[in-house]
Write a structure and sequence with these properties.
208 residues, mainly beta, three-stranded antiparallel sheet, 0% helix
Length: 208
């Protein structure tokens, strides 16, 4: 805006108000107490065809009939891309176009430029840190309780850190609970005559 073209360096900008008689031709004009908005025309824009830009006043002065107010500055503020009249805005992820949510750089936990990622987890039913079954994807910042990053558990019904479970389903048991007949928690016992059932004297093989 070239202020030197205005009388005394002050430019008159009439802001018209609605008729007190509600005449139809003034419909949509300013009413008492409303804040006027302004536009600035740039004749050099768009290859000389010009463009109107929303202008920002240095202060918001309510309109009143026959009022005369002084605005010191009336400017067109460029958007974050430096474009006059542009609609890009500054988000946590940087300057983005109008309509963009501004969370393009957010991680899965919603933290701008964060490090959280989506990973596959398996349920750990027995709480030994070893999972099993079908995997499900979760953000590693918000993993539900009881899910782990592996499906290595050979038996998720038996708590066993080592994941070494014997044939009797005992963690680190080394089949110590298997009797001589190969039965878990069985009653067979090893006699001089070999493996015999409980109640057997174990001397079936003895001579006279």
């Amino acid at each position: 805006w070239d202020w030197t073209l205005c009388t005394g360096g002050v430019c008159d900008v009439p802001v018209m108000g609605e008729s007190l008689e509600n005449e139809p031709w003034t419909a949509g004009y300013m009413e008492e107490g409303e804040i006027p908005s302004f536009k600035i025309f740039d004749a050099s824009a768009n290859g000389g065809s010009g463009a109107y830009y929303d202008a920002v006043a240095d202060q918001d002065i309510p309109w009143m009939n026959l009022g005369m107010n002084v605005i010191l500055d009336l400017n067109v503020v460029p958007d974050c891309n430096g474009d006059l009249g542009g609609t890009a805005w500054e988000s946590d992820c940087g300057c983005v176009e109008e309509g963009n949510s501004g969370d393009d750089c957010d991680d899965c936990a919603g933290i701008p430029n964060g490090s959280a990622t989506i990973q596959t987890y398996w349920v750990d039913a027995d709480g030994d840190g070893l999972g099993s079954g079908s995997g499900s994807e979760f953000c590693d910042a918000t993993v539900p309780l009881g899910w782990v990053l592996n499906n290595a558990d050979i038996n998720d019904d038996i708590f066993c850190y080592s994941n070494i479970i014997d044939e009797c389903d005992v963690c680190d048991g080394e089949n110590a609970d298997m009797d001589c007949a190969g039965e878990c928690f069985g009653d067979h016992w090893e006699s001089d005559c070999g493996c015999v059932e409980e109640g057997n004297s174990g001397d079936d093989c003895d001579d006279c």
